[in-house]
Fold this sequence. Notes:
Strands 6-7-8-3-9-10 form a six-stranded mixed sheet, with helices on both faces. The protein has a six-stranded mixed sheet with strand order 16-17-18-13-19-20, with helices on both faces. The protein is built from 23 helices and 20 strands. The mean pLDDT is 88. By secondary structure, it is an alpha/beta fold. Helices cover 39% and strands 25% of the residues.
Amino acid sequence: MSKPLLSINNLEISFKREGGYNAVIRNISYDLHENEILGIVGESGSGKSVSSLAIMGLLPAHISKISNGTIVFQGKNVANLNEKEVQNLRGNEIAMIFQEPMSSLNPSLKCGFQVQEILLQHTKLSSSDTKAETLSLFEKVKLPDPQILFEKYPHEISGGQKQRVMIAMAIACKPQLLIADEPTTALDVTVQKEIIQLLKDIQQETGMSIIFISHDLSLVSEIAHRVLVMYQGEIVEQGEVKQIFKNPKHNYTKALIASRPSLEVRLKRLPTIQDFLNDNINSEIVTPKNRAQFHEKLYNQQPILEVINVEKEYFSTAGFFGKKSGFKAVNNVSFKLYEGETLGLVGESGCGKSTLGNAILQLDKATAGQILYRGQDIAKLGGAEIKKLRKEIQIIFQDPYSSLNPRIPVGKAIMEPMQVHGLHKNDKERKAKTIEILERVGLGGDFFNRYPHEFSGGQRQRIGIARTIALQPKLIVCDESVSALDISVQAQVLNLLNELKENFGFTYIFISHDLAVVKYMSDQVLVMNKGKIEEIADADELYANPQNEYTKKLIDAIPKGGS
């Protein structure tokens, strides 16, 4: 093989703690060759992003340092370069695409200018030449109408388009190395597939090398030639993609592969990292016969919720005396939901699934149709009756951190809705109940007085679930409630939701863009597109035999993993 483009040798990175520096990356070594895509996989906190920031010379100053080892890029040790040399390296030789394009793009500058700025700084091109080059880059990353998009601000374009603008910025100076840090995490499965294909096409055309970072091993298998797996600051395994998938050696790698719901087999309980590390795997399967028996009982009762011809229309006015124009976010939607059922709701961003969820929750009233909860049209309820309904129908949000008050300990945040709805006799009883719920969601009473910032993402999601179940609701809307979590934490939360459903008889509307997760969780799946229902069917039947082209496109975009 050719001489490596990048060589990491015995790298140790330390962060300042009380009493000195602590190593967070320990003794990692790997090579990246020219014209190669290397996948780096691991959960949050495994060190994959920190080690890649070190390559760019972007480690936070004064609180971190490279305490051992070398990062050699094209024969130069990056750690020994001065600030000017590192700046010349960034953009010109090494570029990076970040996870969240909205926070990486300047909201006050037009998209075209932000790419032009890179070219003006790093090349000798004139202003008019940089504009022409930017438009050419927008075409290369397959942005629609480059001339129009050039003049738009980041908030005026979709998430997938923002990520394409970021890719255009990254490849503007034709770097030899591109670091893509979780570039598709928040994107729909179809957009994710397009971005992966785009990166592959650009890589083949330019011959640049890519480090592709993700917590999703199946996704990495779609793009990388080789993979290295990181766990707690160390590389535990590396090798060719097929070898890692077909014959993983380390228990952590096995766990990353198995924690993601399979499209073929329905496990009763998803294995977690700890299950693998403790050699305690439950491989009990839910058979088609088990499902058929459960469904016969389930669908032989009155529906708990009936949505009939529901519409939600938004109006906007163009100009001062402009004409009002309407947009139907939800268009003539009807379905039934039965007590104890999980109904999966899938579709791309903007399809209307969250709007429909908000209409059911009475957070945003429907403009037409009926929503019958236990036979009563809840769209016609007044304030006091809506308050009563809130106890029955609850939501688990996508981002638990923004739904928790940072100044209130989590125990009090869970007690608060109990007080509002007059549950239990007094605060002593409510506190005892809160501790019981915290234990139920796998946390425990000693977490009662801690604040939201003291918890990990997975723990905060458990707190969000605890707060929801404190009211003993009957129907819970889970709106993208696991989409921001690592694969193994996601497995823990999905297991918890299923366990709670079994114990408390909950009914779920499970909204997500992750189709593998929706199939695993759901009894029936409802597919939405542009505000309308495209298809509704039993989850297993829908995935095995989709009737609709749009559904086929969604299923085809699911990363298959090593195949």
